Amino acid sequence: MFWGVALALAVWLAVDHEVDELLDDTLHDAAQVLGSLLIDEEVLRHARDLPGEPLRSSSRGSSILGDRFAWQLVDPQGHVLLRSPAAPEVALHQRAAAGLDGNGQWRSFGLVLSPSGRVLYVMQSRAERWEATSTAAFSSALAALVVGVLGHLWLRMRVQVELGPIRRLSDRLRQADPGGVAGVGDLGGGLGEAEREELEPVHCAVEDLARRLSRRLDHERAFTAHAAHALRTPLAGIDAQLAVALREVPPEQRPRLQRVRDATGRLQRVVAALLALFRSGVELSQRDIELEGFVARLPVAGLDITVAPDSHLWADGDLLAAALVNLLDNAVRHGARAVRLSAPTRSQLRLEDDGPGVTAARRQELQRALAEQRYEGHMGLGLMLADMVARAHGGALHLPDGPRGFAVELLLAPADRSELAADGTAATGSAAASSAVD
C-alpha cells in the first residue's frame, strides 16, 4: 500500500508538471493563431475607426479559443483595443510584456503583432489551470494506484505460490524427528521428493545432516544406557553391603552409615531414571495407571504423600516413575514434608508440596528455561528429567502459581484425544509433573 501511494504521488507530480507545460504550449499556439487573425486589415481598421466608442468585447477569437482561454489586444499606451468576453477590461500589463508570464490570477502569453507595438495577450485563469491539471493528475494517480494495488496483490499471490514448496518443506522438517521413533530411515520419505529442482540440493543436505545427527544420537543413547547398566549392579551391591553393615556396627556409627545408604539410594534412583529416559528413543509403552497404587510402590521416604481419589493417567509407567521419583526426592531435599498428587484428567498430573517454594520471578525464569529446553545452569536434574519425560510423551512441563509451596503440572499427550477432549481439559495433550526446584 505504501508503494502504491508513493507511485500515485509520483504520477501526480509528473502529470501536473506535464499538463502545466502543455497548457503553456497551448497559450503560445493560441496566440500565434489568434494573432494571424487580428493582423487582418479589417480588424485593425475597425479598431482605428472607433477610437471614441466604449471598448467592446469580441467573440471572433472566443469562437476559436473556446471558453477556457481569454485574450486582449493592447496598444503601446496600455489601452485595451479588443478583448474576449472573459478577459479583464484593464490591460493585463501596463507595459508590453512578450512571452509567458504569471500575473496574479492569470497565466498569459504575450505576442507583439505589429511594429506599432500592439500586443496580444492570450491568458488562462489560475483556477482553470488548476482544474485542468488536477483532473488529469488525479485520474492518472488513481489509475496508477489501482494498477499498483493490483500489481501488489498479484505479486503477493505469486510470491506465496513460489514460496509454497519451501513452506511445505519447512512443515515436514518441523514434524521430522531423526532421533525419535521413526528414526532416520524414514526421514527421507517423510520429506518426499523435491517439488522444485532448485530445492533438490536442500533436500539432500537436510537428509544427510539428519543421518549424521541420528547416528550421533544413537551412539550417545547406547553409551548412556550401557553406562547406566554398568553402574546399577555395583550400586545394588553397595546398598546390600551397607544394609548388612548397619546391623553389625555399633549404634553410634549407624547414623553416618544410614546417610551413606540414603545417598546410594538416591544415586540408584537417578541411574534408574536415566535408564528409563534413554529407553524413550523407542516407542512408548503407555497404559492406564491408577495413581495411588503406582505412587505407593515408589521408593521415596520422608514424605507424607496424598493422592486424590480415583486418579488415573495414560502414560509410560517406567518414564512416569523416573520423573516422579526425582521430583519427590527434590521435594524432600528442599524442605517439603507433605505432597499432594492429583490427576484432573488422564493426560494431566499435578504435584503440590508444602515446601518453601520459589519467588514469582524465579518461577518465570524456570518456565522460560523449560520452554526453550535450556536446562544447564537454570535447574537441577529433577525438573530436567520431568520435562524430558513430558516431551517424550508429546507434552511439556508447566509450573503453575500456587498459594504455597511449589507446584508442577505434567501435561501428557492423551491416548484417546476424542475421549479426553470431552471433559474440556485435555484438548492439546501434553505432559507435566512437579515438586520442589533443584
Description:
The protein has 438 residues and is an alpha+beta fold. It has three domains: 2-131, 2-Layer Sandwich (Beta-Lactamase); 176-282; 284-421, Heat Shock Protein 90 (2-Layer Sandwich). The chain has twelve helices and twelve strands. It has helices at 2-38, 41-49, 60-65, 126-175, 187-191, 200-248, 254-278, 291-296, 317-333, 360-372, 381-392, 417-421, and strands spanning 70-74, 80-83, 99-103, 106-112, 119-125, 286-290, 304-307, 312-316, 338-345, 348-353, 396-398, 407-411. Strands 2-1-5-4-3 form a five-stranded antiparallel sheet. Helix 6 (200-248) runs antiparallel to helix 7 (254-278) and helix 7 packs antiparallel against helix 9 (317-333). The longest helix is centred in the middle third of the chain and has 50 residues, at 126-175. The protein is rod-shaped and about 145 Å long. The model is unreliable at 49-63, 181-186 and 415-438 (pLDDT under 50).
- Low-confidence runs: 49-63, 181-186, 415-438
Task: State the helix count.
Answer: 12
What name does the CATH topology of the largest domain carry?
Answer: Heat Shock Protein 90
> What is the mean predicted local confidence, pLDDT?
75
Shape by Cα distribution: rod-shaped
Using only C-alpha atoms, the radius of gyration works out to 46 Å
Write the layout of secondary structure elements.
Layout: H1 2-38, H2 41-49, H3 60-65, E1 70-74, E2 80-83, E3 99-103, E4 106-112, E5 119-125, H4 126-175, H5 187-191, H6 200-248, H7 254-278, E6 286-290, H8 291-296, E7 304-307, E8 312-316, H9 317-333, E9 338-345, E10 348-353, H10 360-372, H11 381-392, E11 396-398, E12 407-411, H12 417-421
Parallel strand pairs: 7-9
Antiparallel strand pairs: 1-2, 1-5, 3-4, 4-5, 6-8, 9-10, 10-12, 11-12
